[in-house]
Amino acid sequence: MKYPNLDTPALLIDREIMMDNLRFMQDYADREGVALRPHTKTHKNPAIAKKQAELGARGITVAKVGEAEVMAENGLTDLFIANEIVGEKKLLRIRDLCRKGAKVSFGVDTPCQVEAAEAVFAGEAAPARVLIEIEVGEERSGILHEDAFTALLDTIKACPHVEFAGIFSHEGHCYNADTVEDCREKFITSQERTLAFARLARERGMEPRTVSIGSTPSLMFGFHILPGITEIRPGTYVLMDASQGHAIGTLDRCAATVLTTVISRPTPERVITDVGAKGLTAQTRTKGICATPGLGTLKEFPDVHIFDVYDEHAILYHKGFREAVRVGDRVEIIPVHICPVCNLYEKAYLVSGGEVVEELPILCRGKLQ
């Protein structure tokens, strides 16, 4: 029986695969001459973030102030919040982190965000550090037009307690690239657009010390990073998932799985296990190189995919799989998208050679504010 001392569902992380992934991305960043600032929203775990730092990462990225607070409490104090910060409460919490010695920067794309930061940081020894987000094709947040960018620069320049630390972008649309070559073209175009705004800032006398990009699909293929980019922020690479595995053509780099127990075999083809949407999410990837069948892939049976999930049940239809397992057997599921899955568990079990070697509390779990 697999991991007989663990109750299920349980989140497993293969130590050797994870460490290989960490070294792979650090080596890539070193070869390309850029800093690696990994996005820890994937694993939400200070222990793993420390391993990334030990291997050479220069600071970490988080998505929310709450994650920054947890990471700082655990000794990780060079922090970039890759998100627009809105609201006095959040700004006051960032100010408190800075007062305690953390080096915190955060995203902006609107003048009112800068003006609010100026009000909160007025009188502080150190200014608020902001990076302007550039929209490069994902159709999410970020600056679209040059006039909006220059207006934002002018606002920062007029605020003595706000420091322009640089610009950042996220080429998330690379997840939907049709082919690897299409992914490369989207990656290059996104870099070029980011660098164009960096040049515009310099022309206005504001040097962007950090020019940051990042999205795991576009960084797994070893594409060349253009001169002028200073930093990359991949997140999913540390654990990978079924969609990332499909993008690169192998599931061998998938370090994270969900251990689940077969609880029913009600028909000649149907199998039910004890993990559902509350342990896997119901997310799918249906487009481009990351397209993945179903709602999860069976590690031991890679041609078997979850057909549907209820809150606490996974539904699978596969005659061969049904004949191969019995009620009580345990199997591992490779999630479609690992980032939200980690947020569903209180801890992960680090495993090596079929044995649990460490329990890793997911301390940033639920830190959504």
Attribute tags:
369 residues, alpha/beta, 9-stranded mixed sheet, 8-stranded parallel sheet, 33% helix
Question: Which helices and strands appear, and what pairs or packs with what?
Answer:
Blueprint: E1 10-14, H1 15-32, E2 35-36, H2 46-54, E3 60-62, H3 65-73, E4 78-84, H4 88-99, E5 103-108, H5 111-121, E6 128-134, H6 146-157, E7 162-169, H7 180-203, E8 210-213, H8 216-219, E9 231-232, H9 242-248, E10 256-264, E11 270-273, H10 277-280, E12 297-298, E13 308-309, E14 314-317, H11 319-324, E15 330-334, H12 338-342, E16 347-352, E17 355-361
Parallel strand pairs: 1-16, 2-9, 3-4, 4-5, 5-6, 6-7, 7-8, 8-9
Antiparallel strand pairs: 1-10, 10-11, 10-15, 11-14, 12-15, 13-14, 16-17
Query: Which band does the percent of strand residues land in?
Result: 15-25%
Task: Tell me the number of strands.
Answer: 17
Q: Biggest sheet: strands, sense, closure? A: 9 strands, mixed
Number of helices: 12
End-to-end gap: 40 Å
The ordered string of helix (H) and strand (E) elements is: EHEHEHEHEHEHEHEHEHEEHEEEHEHEE
Question: Roughly what percent helix?
Answer: 25-40%
Low-confidence parts, pLDDT < 50 over ≥5 residues? none
Structural class: alpha/beta
Summary of the model, kept short:
This protein is of the alpha/beta class and 369 residues long. It is built from twelve helices and 17 strands. The longest helix is centred in the middle third of the chain and has 24 residues, at 180-203.
Characterise the protein shown here.
It is built from 12 helices and 17 strands. It has helices at 15-32, 46-54, 65-73, 88-99, 111-121, 146-157, 180-203, 216-219, 242-248, 277-280, 319-324, 338-342; strands spanning 10-14, 35-36, 60-62, 78-84, 103-108, 128-134, 162-169, 210-213, 231-232, 256-264, 270-273, 297-298, 308-309, 314-317, 330-334, 347-352, 355-361. The protein has 369 residues and is an alpha/beta fold. Strands 1, 10, 11, 12, 13, 14, 15, 16 and 17 form a 9-stranded mixed sheet that branches. It has an 8-stranded parallel sheet with strand order 2-9-8-7-6-5-4-3, sandwiched between helices. The relative contact order is 0.16.
